[in-house]
Amino acid sequence: MVDQIRQVVVVSDLHCGCQVGLCPPKVALDSGGVWSHGPTQKAIWEVWSHFWTEWVPRVTRGEPYAVVVNGDAMDGAHHRSKTQITQNFADQIKIAYEVLAPVRDACDGRFYMVRGTEAHVGQCAENEEMLAQSLDAVRNDLGNASSYDLWMDVGNRLVHFTHHIGTTSRMAYETSALMGEYTEMLATAARWRRPAPDFVVRSHRHQHIQITAPTANVYGTTFTTPAWQGRTPYVWKVARISETQVGGSLIRVGDEEAYTRHFVRALERSQTIDITEVRDAV
Question: pTM, whole model, 2 decimals?
Fold first, then answer.
């Protein structure tokens, strides 16, 4: 008898290929050159390593788990940006493979990929699908290694994953889109007499927040995942006040309860200047 998997770890928005995205310390490029970490990538990589080697084993209690990468594994060549390590998609796929192959191995192949934003992962998520195939991600009913959304039974709870959700740059409105998403999911399920999800997981906005609502299964939970990318010029424009968050999440289901655990870290903010030292140096 196969043991039922009762927990799933979720990460998203790795943006491999970006100069401030997730990246191993050194990667070989198609040109024969080598890219090495800058300060932001080094800080993110240290948190990523801690997440997988210390936090995940502790919160999963040594028991088997699945992993969902909830979109935007690569950065792409988007919006006329100039922040990529390389815009060669083969290089970006190689970087993401080096990042995610150990994760796939650690979960014994219970590894799933959700498609992200076309601007980052290609039209029809073609580059993310190629990455998912190379990682031998679990295939869906169409035979694809990545999906636009994912329904998953975790223990006796139903979870729905997809990448996109509405965004905001104001903390006062962070939960609005989550409650809207949750109530729409309930209404759609009722309309078509289908099971409603107990957990709704979204990404895309690079900021973590969670809401819960009482249900017959104790609580219905909706949350967004943090990212693994530092601030780009676009973020400095639209979310200049928000702290940069990196991290991931766990959904764990027991016989009588289900809960989430979230690992969220803020990167260091910009340096504070001591004007006395500046004056003395003149």
Answer: 0.93
